Amino acid sequence: MFAISRSLRLSRCLSPFGRGLSASSSPGPRTLVAIDFDRTIVEQDSYLAVSQLLPTSQRKELQDQIPKCGWLSFISQVLQRLHGEHKVNSASVGKRVRSLTAVPGMLRVMRQLARIPELELCIVSDANSFFIGEWLQAYAIECLFAGGVFTNPACVQASGELLVLPYQEQTDCDLCPSNMCKGSVMDELTCSGRYERLIYVGDSCNDLCAIKRLRQKDVACIRRGFELHGKMTAHGQELACSVLTWRDGHELEELLMPKIVA
């Protein structure tokens, strides 16, 4: 039932790029680098950035509801108000997303990784396909993510309003929101049989579930000074994988590349 419902949602809001798990162009053992989007690839949270198009009072009102209602409800209400009350169209939303600054050095390290024949990149994010697609297209790097983009599907409706739908509907995982369990995505990638090793790069609490699914031969790359890094004192002993911490893309490249080419 889950797979059918997700297929129906995706047919209504098609992603501008593939979801991954396509046939590999290179035989032999492969490594997948799965990367979060907000505060990992881009410096700012994309949902908060788009909410800045609202008047301050409305933005704060909706932000106060995030702990209770969640991020997907937050961005849905932001987009509804932008379109309905302020006549802000999807092009203006896309322009705001395209203006987001990359984490220093991240564009370079992603391009470097994508050049390695035995490696694929993918994105695993609780953002959405419209935001991520706009940003990747702005830098002409959609082609780097041969492993696909796993995120909430989004589309522009006939009215011009941008609609974001849940990636899934789940109640089994308490670490993740109901619309997306990143751990289940990692399980899907592991069980696909395509990859000998997984590397996960993230910064937030919702990445904890994903890295807890990694095996001893896998690697978690945790951004230092952010939410996930702060959780390691309490949860570090629960991880089977090796862990490295990084501040920006330059440091990530310096620490990660030797682990891949070794």
Automatic annotation (TrEMBL):
Gene3D superfamilies: 3.90.1470.20, HAD superfamily/HAD-like (3.40.50.1000). It holds the Pfam family Put_Phosphatase. GO terms for molecular function: metal ion binding; phosphatase activity. Keywords: Hydrolase, Magnesium, Metal-binding. Its cofactor is Mg(2+). Mg(2+) binds at D36, D38, D203. The active site is at D36 (nucleophile), D38 (proton donor). It comes from the Eukaryota. PANTHER family: LP01149P, PHOSPHATASE, ORPHAN 1, 2. Belongs to the HAD-like hydrolase superfamily. PHOSPHO family. This is Uncharacterized protein. It comes from Drosophila melanogaster.
